[in-house]
Each structure stands twice: as C-alpha cells, then as structure tokens.
Amino acid sequence: MTESSSMLAVVKEHYGPGFSLRSVPIPVPPPGWVRVRVRAVGICGSDLPIFEGIRPVPLPLIPGHETVGEVEALGEGVEGWAVGDRVAVDMVVACGRCRFCRIGRPTLCERLMELGIHTHGGFAEYMIAPARNLHRLPEPLTWEEGTAADPLASAYHGMRMAGPLDGATVAVFGTGAIGLYAIQLARHLGAWRILAVGRREAPLQQARELGADEGISIQRENPVEGIRARTGGLGADIVIEATGAPEIFPQVIEAAAPGGRILILGVFHEPTHLDAGRLVRKELQLWGSLCYTWDEYEYCLQLLAERRIRPLISHVFPLQEMGTALALLHRREALKIVIRPNP
User: Fold this and answer.
1) Using CA atoms, how far apart are residues 98 and 109, in angstroms rounded to an integer?
2) Angle CA(264)–CA(174)–CA(339) in degrees, nearest 5?
3) Cα(330)–Cα(61) distance, integer angstroms
4) For the residues 266-278, what does the mean pLDDT come to?
5) Among candidates 94, 110, 119, which has minimal Cα distance to 29?
6) Are residues 73 and 15 both part of a single domain?
7) Same domain, 128 and 183
8) pLDDT band at 268 (very low <50, low <70, confident <90, very high)
9) What is the DSSP letter of 105?
C-alpha cells in the first residue's frame, strides 16, 4: 500500500493543445475495481489528438490506455487477484447487459467506456480499473513489452473480422506501430505476400525485417500503381488502412483487387472521401474496427510471451518527461514510446 495520499499524473485540463503535470489524489477503487501501480504505459497514436485538443474527451482527464503494472489495492468484492500480481489492463469497459454485449460484441456496447479516453487512464503513478479488465502479465514479458498487447490486439481484432489471410496478398498502408503489428500478424496468419506502403525509408526497412516482402515508398512511386505492378495489375486481395490520414483512403480503395477486402484500422478525426461507386463496381468488402475483446487481448499477450510477435518499443521515458516524448512523436522521430510512471 502507498503511504502518500497523492500521486503524479499527466492531466488534460482544457481544450486546445497541451497538458499539465499535477499532483492529484490517489484513486480509491470502488467495489469490483482494483488499483494498479502503473509500471509502464505506451503512448498510442490515438492519445495524440487528445493532447492536441482535437479529440473531444471529458475534462479533466488522465489519458493513457496501454497499461501494465501491479495490483496495489482491491475494491470490495474482488476475488481471484492479490496485491502484487503483475497485470495488463485492457481498456474496453463494456456493460455486459446490452444486446451487443449479449451477442459477444463488447466493442459495440451501448454504454462503452474506454479507460484513458472516457475516464482516467494510465499516465499516472496509479490508476483504477474493473477487475474484469485485468490479465495476468506472462513472466517472460517485461513491463515495457507488456504494453504492446493493446495495439497488437487492436490490429488482431480487425484482422479476425476481415476473414482468412491464407494465401492472400496483403497491402498495409502505414508503417507506424499499428501498421507494423498488422504486418507481423499477416505473416503469422498465413498471408502469401505482404506489401508495406509508407513515406519514410527507415520504417519501410523495419517493415521488411518484420515480415513484409516489399516496401513501397510514396515518395518514390504512386502506391496504387506500385501495388498493381507487383500483383499482375490486379491489386491486393486485402488492403489494410493503418494511417488515419483522410487523403490516403481513396488510394486504399483503388489498391484493392476486384472482390477484395478493405480493413480500416486507422482512427480518423476528419472526414474522408469514399467513392461508393468504385466500392460497388469492384464488389469490395469494407470493415471498420474498434478496440478488441477480452479474449483477443489475452491471445495477443500469449503471442508476445511466446515471441511470435516482436514488441515495438523505440524509446522509454519517465512520466516527468512526457513533453519530450510527445515532441519526438510530433517530429516523427520515434516509432513507439513507453512511459514509466514507476521505475
């Protein structure tokens, strides 16, 4: 148990850019919840619009949802967990009672709450979470590696929805963390050929190291023409959008082969253009994907623990250096940053 009544936290206090580093009360877990001593939390691409003030969230808010740590206190009625247990915390808090929860679609819950977005998250020394959102962190994984479960599960959820990849040609637009996890998963799930589409050479090279057969630089060639040239003029069987950039989406449609599948993993904060006529004439299937289920998160923890998927971590910073971490991301000088509130 902590002896202090306050903790250090990154707090989004007002609309517009910026955040504050504050001393705030340590949260008390209500019945059915636990308090976690946060050991590591990844900065997600979806955190950046929160810090920039683009994404509406309830204020004040402690963001952060790629969280691992140790159980530090139990709320009333919590069973099966003990103080000191190593845990990973998934962000999806579903009601369990609405029609979508009852049919196994918790990501569509009518009362969906996401930790770090709709309520306080992990950019703090402590956080609280429902006990049902905890997963045991496998011993082979370090604190930093455990944070990879969330983005990996987000990619896996969509790729499961999009159907079998056996023997397919897959094109992945975006070489950030989600795109690189999608590439690794495509290889794991049996894709025959994987094409990575990106802007900068270093991430494209990493994509090749992680399983992509070829990298297509949009600085050097038109990505649609590049994909068609490598697929006999047809396009890719499955195209994965992992950028969240509105201007990219029309190219994603054109890069798909007739009868192909398109999966949107990127989070869009601005409208994009969709030529529905092309969708119809090419008989394309289109999927959007949000978060993950408890089982998918658990599976991804095991993939990481068994070293079937490589965790992506480029930098580690203490909580007090959040500003430095965000500046690196804005300059595109970091792939994936993990924050360590407690060493």
Assistant:
1) 7
2) 100
3) 21
4) 89
5) 119
6) yes
7) no
8) confident
9) -
Euclidean distance between CA atoms 61 and 280, whole angstroms: 42
For residues 264 and 327, state if they share a domain. Answer: no
Identify the CATH number of the domain in which residue 229 sits.
3.40.50.720
Q: What is the mean pLDDT of residues 324-331?
A: 96
Are 10 and 49 contained in the same domain? yes
> Which DSSP category does 63 fall into?
-
In a domain, 90, yes or no: yes
Percent of the chain's residues with pLDDT above 70: 99
According to the model, what pLDDT value does residue 3 have?
A: 62
Per-residue pLDDT tens for 57-70? 999 999 999 999 99
CA atoms within 13 A on the CB side of 206: 21
Q: Which domain holds residue 281?
A: 153-288
* Nearest CA among 167, 159, 148, 162 for reference residue 183: 159
- Rounded to the nearest 5 percent, the helix, strand and coil shares of the chain are 30, 25, 45
Read off the pLDDT band of 270 (50, 70, 90): confident
Count of the separate structural domains present in the chain: 2
- What residues are paired with 196 via a beta bridge? 172, 215
For residue 194, give Cα distances in angstroms to 24, 135, 211.
47, 31, 7
For residue 1, tell me if it sits in a domain: no
Q: Tell me if residue 261 falls in helix, strand or coil.
A: strand
Are residue 80 and residue 43 in the same domain, yes or no?
yes
Q: Which residue has the tokens 């994907």?
A: 289
pLDDT digits (tens, 9 = 90+) for 62-97: 999 999 999 999 999 999 999 999 999 999 999 999
CB 289 within 8 A of CB 263: yes
pTM, two decimal places: 0.96
